[in-house]
Design brief:
Blueprint: H1 11-18, E1 28-31, E2 37-40, H2 56-94
Antiparallel strand pairs: 1-2
């Protein structure tokens, strides 16, 4: 049995937070120890920590991961926008 914070990758804990006791998750993407893509299916056997409002003391790693994911998503959106602009410029030259 594992604690939610012990699972890798950290987003697995977010999947577990949404499960009811006895419920099985959809497949969750992961990387194996040798770097291969794989999936894991999770089942929540029991809840040991009551729900609480997130705070830096108890939830620093989760908050850090969410901030990093949001930063990456923003960078991807910016790159996509730049690629669209470049693509439009190339197509305009052809006419």
């Amino acid at each position: 049995m594992f604690e939610a914070d012990d699972l890798d990758p950290p987003q697995v804990s977010f999947v577990i937070d949404k499960l009811e006791v006895g419920q099985i998750s959809d497949p969750v993407p992961m990387k194996t120890e040798d770097g291969k893509d794989a999936y894991r299916i999770l089942m929540l056997k029991k809840k040991t920590i009551p729900p609480h409002k997130a705070n830096l003391k108890d939830d620093y790693s989760r908050i850090q991961m969410l901030a990093l994911q949001e930063k990456k998503a923003a960078e991807h959106r910016q790159m996509d926008t730049q690629q669209i602009k470049i693509s439009l410029r190339k197509h305009r030259r052809k006419f």
